[in-house]
Write a structure and sequence with these properties.
Blueprint: H1 2-75, E1 89-95, E2 98-106, E3 111-112, E4 117-120, E5 123-126, H2 128-140, H3 145-159, H4 172-175, H5 203-209, E6 213-214, H6 234-238, H7 248-255, H8 265-269, H9 272-276, H10 281-284, E7 293-302, E8 306-314, E9 321-327
Parallel strand pairs: 3-6
Antiparallel strand pairs: 1-2, 2-7, 4-5, 7-8, 8-9
Helix pairs in contact: 2-3
């Protein structure tokens, strides 16, 4: 009997020790989990602070961009030129905790997708010259003639006020038959990414178009500044001709432009290359000597945050005003 009584307590002591060890293990796991949670919360708080700081830097950079646009315009009121090489030049500015990268460019040297229509009060109607320029631009970018015509008319239908489809375009009836039905905007396009929803615009075609198109908050024909247009942007000059053409003469012409540009549109259109385009009076007035729209591409890089922005500035207003911004990686 005494031997049985001795075995029992030993087993109980072993069970108690095992229980204590299990409790210690559980507490250790909970403590480790708690420390991980605390570290994660601390990291999230730090990231949130850096993100907030990065956005504050973007707002400050926007202000600098607006001031720069004002200075460029006021320096030569009748003729905006690229003195100092500001147009498209990337600059970096160290700031506490990070760095700002900024690029200021002529925001009108692009194809204004909203020029596919004219606007009379609230009514938007197709503009033949805008449609023709868009088609020529696409063809010179290697897009097939038929696809270019389909896309041009489809985008025009997307913007215009009526619900009557063009011969090669698409209106509500087409989009309502899609797996996820939707309607046309019947309004000016706000951001070029909207084109992705339009008939015929594939991912490949959008990638080709994106560097050359913009969505200005006006239906005016693309306001190409002949004094700031760079040789590598020659396609925007060539699209103003009556037919798609070789870009080499356009590049060579822009490469020979006087340092101070042209003082008048008559001087410009009197040159042999522009004259060869056979531009109509409407297209000739499309060319500009000054810049109204400026584009600012911004990026703020912190230790654990990266924020990017593209902003559009209207320098015709006094003071210059920011009219559109887009943040993220969509551009």
């Amino acid at each position: 009997m005494s031997q049985i009584r001795q075995i029992g307590p030993r087993k109980e002591r072993g069970a108690a020790l095992l229980t204590v060890l299990l409790l210690v293990a559980v507490i250790a796991i909970l403590a480790a989990h708690g420390i991980d949670r605390l570290a994660g919360a601390t990291k999230l708080a730090s990231n949130a602070r850096e993100l907030s700081q990065a956005k504050a830097y973007l707002i400050a950079a926007e202000s600098i961009g607006m001031e720069s646009a004002e200075q460029i315009v006021s320096a030569s009121p009748g003729r905006t030129v690229n003195l100092g090489g500001w147009n498209g030049r990337e600059q970096k500015f160290p700031v506490p905790g990070g760095i700002i990268t900024a690029t200021l460019a002529d925001g009108g040297n692009c194809f204004n997708i909203n020029s596919l229509v004219t606007q009379q009060q609230e009514i938007l109607s197709a503009r033949p010259e805008g449609l023709a320029q868009f088609s020529r631009l696409m063809i010179m970018l290697g897009i097939l003639d038929g696809d270019a015509a389909d896309i041009a008319e489809s985008v025009g239908d997307w913007i215009d006020s009526d619900n009557i489809a063009s011969p090669r375009g698409a209106e509500d009836q087409y989009y309502l038959q899609q797996d996820n039905p939707y309607r046309t905007a019947n309004a000016l396009i706000v951001d070029v990414s909207e084109l992705r929803t339009i008939k015929g615009v594939t991912d490949d075609i959008f990638v080709r178009l994106a560097p050359w198109i913009c969505a200005l908050p006006t239906s005016d024909l693309s306001p190409i500044n002949i004094n700031t247009l760079r040789p590598e942007q020659a396609i925007l000059l060539a699209m103003m001709g009556k037919a798609p053409s070789d870009l080499i003469p356009a590049r060579q012409f822009l490469g020979r432009r006087p340092e101070l540009g042209y003082a008048s549109l008559n001087d410009f259109w009197a040159q042999s290359y522009p004259a060869s385009l056979g531009a109509s009076p409407e297209v000739q007035s499309q060319a500009k000597l000054t810049t109204r729209w400026f584009r600012v591409d911004l990026a703020v890089e912190m230790q654990s945050a990266l924020v990017e922005e593209r902003a559009l500035i209207d320098a015709a207003r006094q003071p210059a005003q920011l009219v559109h911004r887009q943040r993220g990686d969509a551009f």
